[in-house]
Amino acid sequence: MSNTIYIVICxxxxxxxxxxxxxxxxxxxxxxxxxxxxxxxxxxxxxxxxHYNIVSVWSIYLYILIGVLIGSVLAVRVKxxxxxxLVALLNGIGGIAAALVGILSLLGIGVPDxxxxxxxxxxxxxxxxxxxxxxxxxxxAAGKLHKLLPQKPxxxxxxxxxxxxxxxxxxGVILFSAFPIDNTFWIAVVLIVSIVVSSxxxxxxxxxxxxxxxxxxxSLLISLSGVAGAIAGMALNDLLLVSVGGIVGASGLLLTQIxxxxxxxxxxxxxxxxxxxxxxxxxxxxxEEKAEVTQETDAEILKSAxxxxxxxxxxxxxxxxxxLVRQLADKLEANGTNVKYAIHPVAGRMPxxxxxxxxxxxxxxxxxxxxxxxxxxxxxxxxxIVIGANDVINPAARDAxxxxxxxMPVLNVDHAREVFICNYDLNPGYAGVDNPLYKRNHGxxxxxxxxxxxxxxxxxxxxxxxxM
Amino acid sequence: xxxxxxxxxxxxxxxVGYLIIRNVxxxxxxxxxSGMNALAGIIILGALVVVGLSDSxxxxxxxxxxxxxxxxxxxxxxxxxxGFGVTHRMLKMFDKKKKSGKS
Lengths: 468, 103
Known about the structure:
The complex is a heterodimer. Chain A is α/β, with parallel strands linked by helices. Helix content of chain A is 58%, strand content 7%. A six-stranded parallel sheet of chain A has the order 3-2-1-4-5-6. Chain B is an all-alpha fold. Chain B has a domain at 39-103. Chain B is 82% helix and 0% strand. Chain B has four helices and no strands. Chain B starts with a helix and ends with a helix. At the A-B interface, helix 1, helix 2, helix 3, helix 4 and helix 8 of A face helix 1, helix 2, helix 3 and helix 4 of B.
């Protein structure tokens, strides 16, 4: 393949990826966008095999086959609730692939001759470092989301100092690798130091982030893995890899910013662990005993409600209760209640997570409202039914200055007349802040336990509903 | 290829990539994130190159290229296939819902 044709194809494929991403950001065209992106990657692989004259290396196809098998099993088998950790896991695997490519380029194995050895070694080492930070960081994120690691931020002794020292060492080895090293022993030493230190850095940097900030961290790590790819592409002189890696790096970073804005946080604060560290909350004045609400009144309130807003959270995902939520909404509607869903931008573990789950239960798209669209309507709403959400409805975010969620926009659930809360327990949510709403003595109906059971109880109370 | 060109390509791609997603409804954040993750598996191209080119090198280098590079190919393919696969699954659910909403 001539060089000009190759460059033209690279440009076309990069544009295809861009179009794919932009199509993916609109509901109607999202499926097509995803397919286009997938097709571009596939075409990129074919072009690469042809361009480097490596079509005949049979082992490649074996590796691809193994990868396709594992990948498809993961894609088909994973439950929607496990999405966030799967994305983190896949991202980590991509990160280590970039690091492996970087290691091989540094050792001069399988590198096309580019004629700029210093630049190639420098970028190869950079790819190793960024790739490994992505790998261990994503693994810690996946572990936290899968509850294999503690959700609370873990702070090591001299955490800040350790991170700074690792950063300096990482920069040091990257710069050092730009100089010609002929001695194999020294190459090995530099490589091992960089592997150990960058793996540690990825671990230390993610373990300090609290569970509530995981979506942002994953998004940042995705961006980082794109950058790692682009840098590895520089080491290999691969135009397409550089350009697509750059696109993913930048758009991943933008997505990270969009999420930060939704949570009213600064990226720097999250990365330095500032907002994640939950401090003991100020005790709010204890109100008198919760008024015992009898079953009859509960049922009456539910039946007589004209308007209802359902607020789903991660608890709904955990209990796999989305189908029951749909049933509840149907029951309410059969009773003449107008039902809407309020989706907080960061409800669940990833933005849009709730939409995916509710879509699974065939909830009509028009009933889902984003926070800004619905927040003023809580005042005039008869009942609010909260299913496994805590931090996103915590009024403490508005006024409790010393809590990690202070300043985060929350759903104005407390403005509604009657609030039903179906949560697993009364413990603080992911962010570790007590919810004063639980202690309010009027208009709060707490249904503690598995969301499925609580929803079942509510549905029973509404009764069979009016036949249509 | 000249390093300056490569760095320029990187910068241009980044700027364009940054401009392309302005208004994403939060409904699509998760699928977009997962699609982007699949695209980050583009490192497959690099993995293919090192495996392919190392095949004609001396025994030691060839072995290292096949083992480490092979792992890189497997890993990045898992990332690409798994990533696009789950994204497609998620988006299909939105599609289904839209149709049922209309009927």
